[in-house]
Protein backbone atom coordinates (compact mmCIF):
# COMPACT_ATOMS: atom_id res chain seq x y z
CA UNK A 1 0.00 0.00 0.00
CA UNK A 2 1.25 3.47 -0.83
CA UNK A 3 1.59 6.29 1.65
CA UNK A 4 -1.46 8.55 1.94
CA UNK A 5 -1.59 10.92 -1.02
CA UNK A 6 -4.32 13.54 -1.15
CA UNK A 7 -5.84 15.81 -3.72
CA UNK A 8 -8.32 16.02 -6.57
CA UNK A 9 -8.53 16.36 -10.34
CA UNK A 10 -11.23 17.31 -12.87
CA UNK A 11 -11.57 15.39 -16.14
CA UNK A 12 -13.24 17.60 -18.76
CA UNK A 13 -14.00 16.77 -22.39
CA UNK A 14 -14.17 18.55 -25.72
CA UNK A 15 -17.66 17.07 -26.28
CA UNK A 16 -20.20 14.76 -24.74
CA UNK A 17 -19.12 11.11 -25.07
CA UNK A 18 -15.47 12.11 -25.54
CA UNK A 19 -14.39 9.64 -22.86
CA UNK A 20 -14.75 11.53 -19.58
CA UNK A 21 -16.67 8.77 -17.81
CA UNK A 22 -14.36 5.94 -18.81
CA UNK A 23 -11.21 7.97 -18.07
CA UNK A 24 -12.58 8.89 -14.65
CA UNK A 25 -13.34 5.23 -13.97
CA UNK A 26 -9.88 4.22 -15.20
CA UNK A 27 -8.24 6.75 -12.89
CA UNK A 28 -10.32 5.47 -9.96
CA UNK A 29 -9.28 1.88 -10.71
CA UNK A 30 -5.61 2.81 -11.14
CA UNK A 31 -5.58 4.68 -7.84
CA UNK A 32 -7.52 2.02 -5.92
CA UNK A 33 -5.01 -0.62 -7.04
CA UNK A 34 -2.30 1.38 -5.31
CA UNK A 35 -4.13 1.41 -2.03
CA UNK A 36 -5.45 4.94 -2.43
CA UNK A 37 -8.90 5.60 -0.98
CA UNK A 38 -10.53 7.25 -3.99
CA UNK A 39 -14.05 8.43 -4.86
CA UNK A 40 -15.65 9.69 -8.10
CA UNK A 41 -17.66 12.90 -8.35
CA UNK A 42 -19.84 14.51 -11.00
CA UNK A 43 -21.44 17.76 -9.90
CA UNK A 44 -24.18 17.78 -12.52
CA UNK A 45 -25.14 14.90 -14.73
CA UNK A 46 -27.76 14.91 -17.49
CA UNK A 47 -28.67 11.29 -18.06
CA UNK A 48 -31.62 8.94 -18.29
CA UNK A 49 -29.48 6.05 -17.05
CA UNK A 50 -29.54 6.07 -13.28
CA UNK A 51 -29.32 3.69 -10.34
CA UNK A 52 -30.38 3.65 -6.70
CA UNK A 53 -27.85 3.67 -3.88
CA UNK A 54 -28.10 1.55 -0.75
CA UNK A 55 -29.76 4.42 1.13
CA UNK A 56 -32.37 4.99 -1.59
CA UNK A 57 -30.81 7.90 -3.52
CA UNK A 58 -30.94 8.17 -7.31
CA UNK A 59 -27.64 8.99 -9.07
CA UNK A 60 -26.20 8.63 -12.56
CA UNK A 61 -25.24 5.09 -13.51
CA UNK A 62 -21.79 6.23 -14.61
CA UNK A 63 -20.99 7.40 -11.08
CA UNK A 64 -22.09 4.02 -9.68
CA UNK A 65 -19.79 2.34 -12.22
CA UNK A 66 -16.93 4.65 -11.20
CA UNK A 67 -17.59 3.82 -7.54
CA UNK A 68 -17.31 0.14 -8.45
CA UNK A 69 -13.97 0.94 -10.12
CA UNK A 70 -12.87 2.53 -6.83
CA UNK A 71 -14.11 -0.48 -4.85
CA UNK A 72 -16.63 1.50 -2.81
CA UNK A 73 -20.40 1.81 -2.46
CA UNK A 74 -21.98 4.64 -4.49
CA UNK A 75 -23.64 7.49 -2.59
CA UNK A 76 -25.66 10.60 -3.34
CA UNK A 77 -22.68 12.96 -2.79
CA UNK A 78 -20.96 11.47 -5.85
CA UNK A 79 -23.62 12.98 -8.13
CA UNK A 80 -25.43 15.73 -6.21
CA UNK A 81 -27.36 17.08 -9.24
CA UNK A 82 -28.95 14.73 -11.78
CA UNK A 83 -31.04 16.11 -14.64
CA UNK A 84 -33.48 13.70 -16.31
CA UNK A 85 -34.88 15.14 -19.57
CA UNK A 86 -38.58 14.46 -20.05
CA UNK A 87 -39.01 16.35 -23.32
CA UNK A 88 -37.28 18.78 -25.64
CA UNK A 89 -37.49 21.65 -23.16
CA UNK A 90 -37.90 20.31 -19.63
CA UNK A 91 -36.11 18.07 -17.16
CA UNK A 92 -36.61 16.66 -13.71
CA UNK A 93 -34.03 17.91 -11.20
CA UNK A 94 -32.81 15.28 -8.75
CA UNK A 95 -30.88 16.80 -5.83
CA UNK A 96 -28.86 14.52 -3.56
CA UNK A 97 -30.83 11.58 -4.85
CA UNK A 98 -34.37 13.01 -4.57
CA UNK A 99 -36.47 14.82 -7.20
CA UNK A 100 -37.14 18.45 -6.30
CA UNK A 101 -38.47 20.17 -9.44
CA UNK A 102 -39.41 20.05 -13.11
CA UNK A 103 -37.64 22.85 -14.97
CA UNK A 104 -37.03 24.25 -18.42
CA UNK A 105 -33.63 25.54 -19.53
CA UNK A 106 -34.21 29.11 -18.38
CA UNK A 107 -35.69 28.30 -14.98
CA UNK A 108 -32.85 25.86 -14.35
CA UNK A 109 -30.34 28.67 -14.91
CA UNK A 110 -32.01 30.54 -12.06
CA UNK A 111 -31.97 27.43 -9.86
CA UNK A 112 -28.26 26.73 -10.42
CA UNK A 113 -27.04 29.40 -8.03
CA UNK A 114 -28.91 27.69 -5.19
CA UNK A 115 -27.60 24.27 -6.21
CA UNK A 116 -23.94 25.31 -6.29
CA UNK A 117 -23.61 25.42 -2.51
CA UNK A 118 -24.97 21.86 -2.32
CA UNK A 119 -22.47 20.77 -5.00
CA UNK A 120 -19.53 22.31 -3.17
CA UNK A 121 -20.64 20.82 0.15
CA UNK A 122 -20.91 17.37 -1.45
CA UNK A 123 -17.42 17.65 -2.92
CA UNK A 124 -16.01 18.90 0.38
CA UNK A 125 -17.62 15.95 2.16
CA UNK A 126 -15.97 13.47 -0.19
CA UNK A 127 -12.59 15.21 0.06
CA UNK A 128 -12.78 15.00 3.86
CA UNK A 129 -13.38 11.24 3.74
CA UNK A 130 -11.23 10.10 0.80
CA UNK A 131 -7.59 10.55 -0.14
CA UNK A 132 -8.35 11.51 -3.74
CA UNK A 133 -11.53 12.61 -5.53
CA UNK A 134 -11.60 12.26 -9.32
CA UNK A 135 -14.18 14.68 -10.71
CA UNK A 136 -15.88 14.36 -14.08
CA UNK A 137 -17.07 17.40 -15.99
CA UNK A 138 -20.27 17.61 -18.03
CA UNK A 139 -20.47 18.20 -21.76
CA UNK A 140 -17.69 20.66 -22.65
CA UNK A 141 -16.01 23.35 -20.51
CA UNK A 142 -16.10 25.65 -23.57
CA UNK A 143 -19.89 26.08 -23.58
CA UNK A 144 -19.29 29.79 -23.19
CA UNK A 145 -22.99 30.66 -23.42
CA UNK A 146 -23.47 28.83 -20.11
CA UNK A 147 -20.22 29.74 -18.35
CA UNK A 148 -21.64 32.43 -16.06
CA UNK A 149 -23.61 29.83 -14.09
CA UNK A 150 -21.54 26.73 -14.68
CA UNK A 151 -21.41 24.35 -11.71
CA UNK A 152 -19.89 21.27 -13.37
CA UNK A 153 -16.81 22.32 -15.35
CA UNK A 154 -14.63 25.42 -14.96
CA UNK A 155 -17.03 26.96 -12.45
CA UNK A 156 -16.44 23.96 -10.21
CA UNK A 157 -12.70 23.89 -10.95
CA UNK A 158 -12.34 27.57 -10.04
CA UNK A 159 -14.38 27.28 -6.84
CA UNK A 160 -12.56 24.16 -5.62
CA UNK A 161 -9.10 24.87 -7.06
CA UNK A 162 -9.03 21.76 -9.25
CA UNK A 163 -6.45 21.08 -11.95
CA UNK A 164 -8.18 20.15 -15.21
CA UNK A 165 -7.29 17.55 -17.83
CA UNK A 166 -9.20 17.81 -21.13
CA UNK A 167 -9.89 14.61 -23.09
CA UNK A 168 -10.70 14.55 -26.81
CA UNK A 169 -12.02 11.73 -29.01
CA UNK A 170 -9.74 11.31 -32.04
CA UNK A 171 -12.14 8.80 -33.59
CA UNK A 172 -14.55 11.68 -34.31
CA UNK A 173 -11.87 13.55 -36.25
CA UNK A 174 -10.53 17.05 -35.63
CA UNK A 175 -9.17 16.28 -32.17
CA UNK A 176 -6.31 18.81 -32.32
CA UNK A 177 -8.67 21.62 -33.27
CA UNK A 178 -11.10 20.52 -30.57
CA UNK A 179 -8.44 20.52 -27.84
CA UNK A 180 -6.89 23.81 -28.93
CA UNK A 181 -10.28 25.47 -29.47
CA UNK A 182 -11.57 24.34 -26.08
CA UNK A 183 -8.63 25.99 -24.36
CA UNK A 184 -8.68 29.14 -26.50
CA UNK A 185 -12.33 29.86 -25.74
CA UNK A 186 -11.75 29.95 -21.99
CA UNK A 187 -10.98 33.04 -19.94
CA UNK A 188 -7.41 33.51 -18.65
CA UNK A 189 -8.55 32.55 -15.16
CA UNK A 190 -10.09 29.28 -16.43
CA UNK A 191 -7.14 28.51 -18.70
CA UNK A 192 -4.80 28.72 -15.70
CA UNK A 193 -6.32 25.46 -14.39
CA UNK A 194 -6.18 23.50 -17.68
CA UNK A 195 -3.01 21.48 -17.15
CA UNK A 196 -2.89 18.93 -19.95
CA UNK A 197 -4.68 16.91 -22.58
CA UNK A 198 -5.53 13.24 -23.18
CA UNK A 199 -6.34 11.84 -26.62
CA UNK A 200 -8.85 9.00 -26.60
CA UNK A 201 -9.79 6.15 -29.00
CA UNK A 202 -6.67 6.22 -31.19
CA UNK A 203 -6.30 3.52 -33.84
CA UNK A 204 -3.09 3.19 -35.83
CA UNK A 205 0.62 3.92 -35.58
CA UNK A 206 1.37 6.16 -32.60
CA UNK A 207 4.36 7.64 -34.45
CA UNK A 208 1.97 9.38 -36.84
CA UNK A 209 0.69 11.52 -33.96
CA UNK A 210 4.09 12.86 -32.95
CA UNK A 211 4.16 16.07 -35.04
CA UNK A 212 0.61 16.94 -33.95
CA UNK A 213 1.38 16.39 -30.26
CA UNK A 214 4.50 18.55 -30.50
CA UNK A 215 2.64 21.32 -32.31
CA UNK A 216 -0.25 21.28 -29.78
CA UNK A 217 2.23 21.66 -26.94
CA UNK A 218 4.06 24.55 -28.62
CA UNK A 219 0.76 26.34 -29.30
CA UNK A 220 -0.74 25.87 -25.84
CA UNK A 221 2.14 25.31 -23.44
CA UNK A 222 0.38 22.20 -22.15
CA UNK A 223 1.46 18.58 -22.58
CA UNK A 224 -0.52 15.67 -23.95
CA UNK A 225 -0.46 13.36 -20.93
CA UNK A 226 -1.13 10.28 -22.99
CA UNK A 227 -2.90 8.66 -25.91
CA UNK A 228 -5.46 5.98 -25.06
CA UNK A 229 -5.89 3.33 -27.76
CA UNK A 230 -9.20 2.16 -29.13
CA UNK A 231 -10.42 -0.73 -26.97
CA UNK A 232 -13.35 -3.05 -27.58
CA UNK A 233 -15.81 -4.00 -24.87
CA UNK A 234 -16.08 -0.65 -23.09
CA UNK A 235 -19.85 -0.22 -23.63
CA UNK A 236 -21.10 -1.51 -20.29
CA UNK A 237 -22.78 0.98 -17.97
CA UNK A 238 -22.73 3.91 -20.40
CA UNK A 239 -24.83 6.89 -19.33
CA UNK A 240 -25.58 8.57 -22.66
CA UNK A 241 -27.81 7.22 -25.46
CA UNK A 242 -25.29 8.78 -27.86
CA UNK A 243 -23.13 5.79 -27.02
CA UNK A 244 -25.71 3.50 -28.62
CA UNK A 245 -24.68 4.92 -32.00
CA UNK A 246 -21.11 3.84 -31.37
CA UNK A 247 -22.18 0.21 -31.16
CA UNK A 248 -23.24 0.42 -34.78
CA UNK A 249 -25.80 -1.73 -36.54
CA UNK A 250 -25.66 -5.48 -36.18
CA UNK A 251 -26.14 -7.77 -39.16
CA UNK A 252 -29.06 -10.17 -38.61
CA UNK A 253 -27.54 -13.43 -37.34
CA UNK A 254 -28.41 -16.80 -38.78
CA UNK A 255 -28.75 -20.28 -37.28
CA UNK A 256 -31.02 -21.93 -34.75
CA UNK A 257 -28.40 -21.58 -32.02
CA UNK A 258 -28.56 -17.78 -32.03
CA UNK A 259 -31.02 -15.52 -30.23
CA UNK A 260 -31.85 -12.15 -31.78
CA UNK A 261 -32.98 -9.45 -29.37
CA UNK A 262 -34.57 -6.22 -30.62
CA UNK A 263 -34.69 -3.34 -28.11
CA UNK A 264 -37.10 -0.52 -28.96
CA UNK A 265 -35.17 2.74 -29.02
CA UNK A 266 -37.79 5.36 -28.35
CA UNK A 267 -36.86 9.05 -28.05
CA UNK A 268 -36.72 9.13 -24.22
CA UNK A 269 -35.25 5.68 -23.67
CA UNK A 270 -33.87 5.26 -20.15
CA UNK A 271 -31.86 2.60 -18.36
CA UNK A 272 -31.14 0.85 -21.64
CA UNK A 273 -28.21 -0.74 -19.80
CA UNK A 274 -30.75 -3.30 -18.56
CA UNK A 275 -29.95 -5.29 -21.72
CA UNK A 276 -26.16 -5.16 -21.32
CA UNK A 277 -26.26 -8.54 -19.61
CA UNK A 278 -28.07 -10.06 -22.61
CA UNK A 279 -25.43 -8.74 -25.00
CA UNK A 280 -22.72 -10.48 -22.95
CA UNK A 281 -24.24 -13.90 -23.52
CA UNK A 282 -22.52 -15.95 -26.28
CA UNK A 283 -24.95 -16.39 -29.16
CA UNK A 284 -27.21 -13.46 -28.17
CA UNK A 285 -27.20 -10.50 -30.56
CA UNK A 286 -28.78 -7.28 -29.28
CA UNK A 287 -29.88 -4.50 -31.64
CA UNK A 288 -31.53 -1.16 -30.84
CA UNK A 289 -34.33 -0.66 -33.36
CA UNK A 290 -36.93 1.87 -34.48
CA UNK A 291 -38.74 0.17 -37.40
CA UNK A 292 -41.42 -2.55 -37.50
CA UNK A 293 -39.42 -4.73 -39.87
CA UNK A 294 -36.57 -4.81 -37.35
CA UNK A 295 -38.96 -6.12 -34.72
CA UNK A 296 -40.90 -8.66 -36.74
CA UNK A 297 -38.24 -11.37 -36.97
CA UNK A 298 -36.56 -10.94 -33.59
CA UNK A 299 -36.70 -13.78 -31.10
CA UNK A 300 -37.24 -11.38 -28.20
CA UNK A 301 -38.49 -7.79 -28.22
CA UNK A 302 -37.62 -5.61 -25.23
CA UNK A 303 -39.51 -2.44 -24.35
CA UNK A 304 -37.00 -0.74 -22.01
CA UNK A 305 -37.46 2.09 -19.56
CA UNK A 306 -38.70 5.52 -20.59
CA UNK A 307 -38.56 8.95 -18.97
CA UNK A 308 -41.75 9.88 -20.88
CA UNK A 309 -43.93 6.77 -21.00
CA UNK A 310 -47.03 8.30 -22.60
CA UNK A 311 -45.08 10.32 -25.17
CA UNK A 312 -42.86 7.35 -26.09
CA UNK A 313 -45.95 5.14 -26.36
CA UNK A 314 -47.43 7.63 -28.83
CA UNK A 315 -44.15 7.58 -30.79
CA UNK A 316 -44.24 3.77 -30.83
CA UNK A 317 -47.75 3.84 -32.26
CA UNK A 318 -46.84 6.47 -34.86
CA UNK A 319 -44.17 4.08 -36.15
CA UNK A 320 -46.56 1.12 -36.41
CA UNK A 321 -44.57 -0.76 -33.79
CA UNK A 322 -47.67 -1.37 -31.66
CA UNK A 323 -49.25 -3.59 -34.29
CA UNK A 324 -46.20 -5.79 -34.81
CA UNK A 325 -45.69 -6.15 -31.04
CA UNK A 326 -49.35 -7.11 -30.57
CA UNK A 327 -49.09 -9.64 -33.39
CA UNK A 328 -46.03 -11.19 -31.75
CA UNK A 329 -47.86 -11.52 -28.44
CA UNK A 330 -50.86 -13.16 -30.14
CA UNK A 331 -48.51 -15.68 -31.75
CA UNK A 332 -46.86 -16.52 -28.43
CA UNK A 333 -43.54 -14.88 -29.34
CA UNK A 334 -41.55 -13.32 -26.48
CA UNK A 335 -41.94 -9.69 -25.38
CA UNK A 336 -40.37 -8.17 -22.27
CA UNK A 337 -41.28 -4.77 -20.79
CA UNK A 338 -39.13 -3.15 -18.12
CA UNK A 339 -40.37 -0.20 -16.03
CA UNK A 340 -41.71 2.30 -18.62
CA UNK A 341 -41.92 -0.53 -21.15
CA UNK A 342 -43.92 -2.58 -18.63
CA UNK A 343 -46.27 0.37 -18.17
CA UNK A 344 -46.83 0.53 -21.94
CA UNK A 345 -48.00 -3.11 -21.94
CA UNK A 346 -50.91 -2.23 -19.62
CA UNK A 347 -54.60 -1.91 -20.54
CA UNK A 348 -54.68 1.70 -19.37
CA UNK A 349 -52.25 4.37 -18.15
CA UNK A 350 -53.56 7.23 -16.03
CA UNK A 351 -50.96 9.98 -15.96
CA UNK A 352 -51.65 13.37 -14.44
CA UNK A 353 -48.02 13.73 -13.34
CA UNK A 354 -45.43 13.08 -16.04
CA UNK A 355 -47.35 13.98 -19.21
CA UNK A 356 -50.61 15.37 -17.78
CA UNK A 357 -52.44 13.33 -20.44
CA UNK A 358 -54.92 11.69 -18.06
CA UNK A 359 -56.24 8.27 -19.08
CA UNK A 360 -54.48 6.77 -22.12
CA UNK A 361 -54.98 3.26 -23.54
CA UNK A 362 -51.92 1.06 -23.25
CA UNK A 363 -50.97 -1.78 -25.58
CA UNK A 364 -53.29 -4.10 -23.64
CA UNK A 365 -50.93 -7.08 -23.66
CA UNK A 366 -50.96 -7.54 -19.88
CA UNK A 367 -53.92 -7.43 -17.46
CA UNK A 368 -52.60 -4.37 -15.67
CA UNK A 369 -53.44 -0.72 -15.11
CA UNK A 370 -51.00 2.08 -14.31
CA UNK A 371 -51.45 5.20 -12.24
CA UNK A 372 -48.74 7.82 -11.92
CA UNK A 373 -48.08 9.25 -8.48
CA UNK A 374 -46.23 12.45 -7.63
CA UNK A 375 -43.82 10.69 -5.29
CA UNK A 376 -41.03 8.87 -7.09
CA UNK A 377 -40.54 5.30 -5.88
CA UNK A 378 -36.85 4.53 -5.35
CA UNK A 379 -35.53 1.28 -3.95
CA UNK A 380 -33.20 -1.69 -4.17
CA UNK A 381 -35.58 -4.62 -3.79
CA UNK A 382 -34.68 -8.29 -3.76
CA UNK A 383 -36.64 -11.48 -3.89
CA UNK A 384 -36.94 -14.83 -5.62
CA UNK A 385 -38.56 -15.95 -8.84
CA UNK A 386 -42.03 -17.37 -8.41
CA UNK A 387 -41.94 -21.12 -8.89
CA UNK A 388 -38.20 -21.72 -9.29
CA UNK A 389 -37.03 -19.69 -6.29
CA UNK A 390 -34.00 -18.19 -8.02
CA UNK A 391 -32.59 -15.20 -6.08
CA UNK A 392 -32.91 -11.78 -7.72
CA UNK A 393 -31.62 -8.35 -6.73
CA UNK A 394 -32.69 -5.20 -8.56
CA UNK A 395 -33.41 -1.49 -8.28
CA UNK A 396 -36.52 0.54 -9.06
CA UNK A 397 -37.08 4.13 -10.19
CA UNK A 398 -40.60 5.09 -11.22
CA UNK A 399 -43.61 7.33 -10.69
CA UNK A 400 -46.06 4.88 -12.25
CA UNK A 401 -47.59 2.24 -9.96
CA UNK A 402 -48.79 -0.91 -11.72
CA UNK A 403 -51.99 -2.60 -10.52
CA UNK A 404 -52.06 -6.23 -11.66
CA UNK A 405 -55.47 -7.77 -12.25
CA UNK A 406 -54.53 -11.22 -13.52
CA UNK A 407 -51.74 -13.28 -15.02
CA UNK A 408 -48.83 -14.62 -13.00
CA UNK A 409 -46.35 -12.67 -10.86
CA UNK A 410 -42.65 -12.87 -11.73
CA UNK A 411 -41.01 -12.33 -8.38
CA UNK A 412 -41.82 -12.79 -4.73
CA UNK A 413 -40.37 -10.15 -2.41
CA UNK A 414 -41.67 -11.02 1.04
CA UNK A 415 -42.18 -8.24 3.52
CA UNK A 416 -40.15 -8.35 6.72
CA UNK A 417 -41.41 -11.45 8.47
CA UNK A 418 -41.01 -13.72 5.48
CA UNK A 419 -44.48 -14.00 3.95
CA UNK A 420 -46.38 -11.88 1.41
CA UNK A 421 -49.33 -10.12 3.01
CA UNK A 422 -52.78 -9.65 1.54
CA UNK A 423 -55.45 -7.01 1.84
CA UNK A 424 -58.87 -6.59 0.27
CA UNK A 425 -59.48 -4.10 -2.56
CA UNK A 426 -60.80 -0.66 -1.69
CA UNK A 427 -64.51 0.09 -1.89
CA UNK A 428 -65.76 -0.37 -5.42
CA UNK A 429 -63.22 -3.06 -6.21
CA UNK A 430 -60.31 -0.77 -7.15
CA UNK A 431 -56.97 -2.20 -5.96
CA UNK A 432 -55.24 -0.01 -3.41
CA UNK A 433 -51.68 1.18 -3.66
CA UNK A 434 -49.66 -0.88 -1.17
CA UNK A 435 -49.00 0.83 2.15
CA UNK A 436 -45.21 0.67 1.78
CA UNK A 437 -45.39 2.41 -1.60
CA UNK A 438 -42.92 -0.01 -3.14
CA UNK A 439 -44.16 -3.54 -3.80
CA UNK A 440 -46.63 -3.80 -6.67
CA UNK A 441 -50.05 -5.25 -5.84
CA UNK A 442 -51.40 -8.34 -7.52
CA UNK A 443 -55.17 -8.75 -7.86
CA UNK A 444 -55.75 -12.48 -8.32
CA UNK A 445 -58.85 -14.53 -9.06
CA UNK A 446 -59.97 -14.12 -5.45
CA UNK A 447 -59.99 -10.35 -5.86
CA UNK A 448 -57.22 -9.80 -3.35
CA UNK A 449 -54.24 -7.49 -3.58
CA UNK A 450 -51.02 -9.31 -2.73
CA UNK A 451 -48.31 -7.12 -1.30
CA UNK A 452 -44.98 -8.84 -1.80
CA UNK A 453 -45.25 -9.90 -5.43
CA UNK A 454 -43.77 -8.06 -8.39
CA UNK A 455 -44.28 -8.09 -12.12
CA UNK A 456 -46.71 -9.88 -14.38
CA UNK A 457 -46.62 -12.55 -17.06
CA UNK A 458 -49.17 -13.80 -19.54
CA UNK A 459 -47.87 -16.44 -21.95
CA UNK A 460 -44.69 -15.14 -23.55
CA UNK A 461 -45.22 -11.53 -22.42
CA UNK A 462 -43.28 -10.49 -19.31
CA UNK A 463 -43.32 -7.18 -17.46
CA UNK A 464 -41.50 -5.83 -14.40
CA UNK A 465 -40.71 -2.50 -12.77
CA UNK A 466 -37.41 -3.90 -11.50
CA UNK A 467 -34.28 -2.75 -13.31
CA UNK A 468 -31.17 -4.91 -13.33
CA UNK A 469 -32.93 -8.28 -13.03
CA UNK A 470 -31.06 -9.61 -16.08
CA UNK A 471 -27.75 -8.99 -14.31
CA UNK A 472 -28.66 -11.92 -12.03
CA UNK A 473 -26.90 -14.74 -13.83
CA UNK A 474 -29.12 -17.68 -12.83
CA UNK A 475 -32.34 -15.78 -13.56
CA UNK A 476 -31.00 -14.53 -16.92
CA UNK A 477 -30.14 -18.08 -18.00
CA UNK A 478 -33.57 -19.38 -17.01
CA UNK A 479 -35.28 -16.48 -18.77
CA UNK A 480 -33.28 -16.94 -21.99
CA UNK A 481 -34.00 -20.67 -21.97
CA UNK A 482 -37.74 -19.87 -21.87
CA UNK A 483 -37.33 -17.30 -24.64
CA UNK A 484 -35.50 -19.86 -26.78
CA UNK A 485 -38.24 -22.45 -26.32
CA UNK A 486 -40.97 -19.95 -27.18
CA UNK A 487 -39.00 -18.74 -30.22
CA UNK A 488 -38.25 -22.26 -31.44
CA UNK A 489 -34.49 -21.89 -31.12
CA UNK A 490 -31.92 -24.51 -30.12
CA UNK A 491 -30.10 -21.86 -28.09
CA UNK A 492 -28.73 -22.91 -24.70
CA UNK A 493 -27.38 -20.17 -22.39
CA UNK A 494 -23.75 -20.53 -21.37
CA UNK A 495 -23.35 -21.88 -17.86
CA UNK A 496 -20.37 -19.72 -16.95
CA UNK A 497 -21.29 -16.18 -18.07
CA UNK A 498 -21.01 -13.79 -15.13
CA UNK A 499 -22.17 -10.21 -15.52
CA UNK A 500 -20.28 -8.99 -12.46
CA UNK A 501 -17.08 -10.70 -13.59
CA UNK A 502 -17.44 -9.04 -17.01
CA UNK A 503 -17.90 -5.64 -15.34
CA UNK A 504 -14.79 -6.16 -13.21
CA UNK A 505 -12.75 -7.21 -16.27
CA UNK A 506 -13.85 -4.05 -18.01
CA UNK A 507 -12.87 -1.89 -15.04
CA UNK A 508 -9.51 -3.66 -14.86
CA UNK A 509 -8.99 -2.90 -18.54
CA UNK A 510 -9.66 0.79 -17.87
CA UNK A 511 -7.12 0.76 -15.06
CA UNK A 512 -4.61 -0.96 -17.34
CA UNK A 513 -5.10 1.69 -20.04
CA UNK A 514 -4.33 4.47 -17.56
CA UNK A 515 -1.26 2.71 -16.16
CA UNK A 516 0.16 1.80 -19.56
CA UNK A 517 -0.67 4.80 -21.73
CA UNK A 518 -0.79 7.90 -19.52
CA UNK A 519 1.98 9.82 -17.79
CA UNK A 520 1.00 8.71 -14.29
CA UNK A 521 3.83 10.67 -12.70
CA UNK A 522 2.45 13.88 -14.18
CA UNK A 523 -1.05 12.91 -13.04
CA UNK A 524 0.19 12.41 -9.47
CA UNK A 525 1.79 15.83 -9.50
CA UNK A 526 -1.48 17.41 -10.60
CA UNK A 527 -3.52 15.50 -8.02
CA UNK A 528 -1.23 16.44 -5.17
CA UNK A 529 -0.01 19.87 -6.22
CA UNK A 530 -2.75 21.34 -8.40
CA UNK A 531 -2.28 23.15 -11.70
CA UNK A 532 1.31 24.29 -12.40
CA UNK A 533 1.97 28.00 -11.96
CA UNK A 534 2.69 30.16 -14.98
CA UNK A 535 0.74 28.27 -17.65
CA UNK A 536 0.48 30.61 -20.66
CA UNK A 537 -2.74 32.24 -21.80
CA UNK A 538 -3.81 31.22 -25.30
CA UNK A 539 -6.00 33.91 -26.93
CA UNK A 540 -8.63 32.91 -29.51
CA UNK A 541 -7.00 32.70 -32.92
CA UNK A 542 -3.51 32.17 -31.42
From TrEMBL:
Gene: cobQ
UniProt family annotation: Belongs to the CobB/CobQ family. CobQ subfamily.
Region Disordered: start-end pairs: 414-441
UniProt keyword terms in alphabetical order: Cobalamin biosynthesis, Glutamine amidotransferase
Record: active site: 339, 467
HAMAP family documented for this protein: CobQ (MF_00028)
Single GO term (MF): catalytic activity
UniProt keyword Zinc-finger, yes or no: no
Name recorded for this polypeptide: Cobyric acid synthase
Amino acid sequence: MTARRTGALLVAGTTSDAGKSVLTAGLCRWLARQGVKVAPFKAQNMSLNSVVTADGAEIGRAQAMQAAAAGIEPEAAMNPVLLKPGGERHSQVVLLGRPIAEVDAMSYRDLKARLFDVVLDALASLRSRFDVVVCEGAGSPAEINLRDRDIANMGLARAAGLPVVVVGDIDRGGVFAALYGTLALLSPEDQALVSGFVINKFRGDHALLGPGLDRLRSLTGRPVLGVLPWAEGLWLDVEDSLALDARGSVAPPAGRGVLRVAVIRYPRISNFTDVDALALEPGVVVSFVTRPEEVADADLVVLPGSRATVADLAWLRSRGLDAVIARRAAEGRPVLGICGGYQMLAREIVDEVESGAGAVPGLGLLPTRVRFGRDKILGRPSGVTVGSGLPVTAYEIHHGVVFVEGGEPLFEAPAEGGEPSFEAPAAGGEPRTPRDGRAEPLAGDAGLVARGYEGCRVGAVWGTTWHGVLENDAYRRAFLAEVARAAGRDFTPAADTSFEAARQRRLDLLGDLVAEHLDTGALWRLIEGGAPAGLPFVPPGG
